[in-house]
Amino acid sequence: MAAALALVAGILAGAVLPPWSALPQYKKKITDRCFHHSECYSGCCLMDLESGGAFCAPRARITMICLPQTKGATNIICPCRGGLTCISKDLMCARRCHMI
């Protein structure tokens, strides 16, 4: 009975936690370990070939090598930052981030 009264008092006082879905989902910062792009604030989970894991990495800047999109859980190259497009201006060269 005392436990039920404590629960009711907690609800009335607003001390009961909100449901899990209502809590903010924090993204990982650059260099944090990750398993999928969705975990990272940057949206890029990059493979670490030396350790066999993956880490959150920044998106590619202008003229940097890029991938047009993320496929799967991790990549070896990140997509471009916002406002840039990943294109190849020459068929013999790798794709790079450009402003279009």
Automatic annotation (TrEMBL):
Transmembrane segments: none annotated. One of its GO terms (biological process) is digestion. Keywords: Disulfide bond, Secreted, Signal. Residues 1-22 form the signal peptide. It is found in: Secreted. GO terms for cellular component: extracellular region. GO terms for molecular function: enzyme activator activity. Its main location: secreted. This is Colipase-like protein 2. It comes from Piliocolobus tephrosceles.
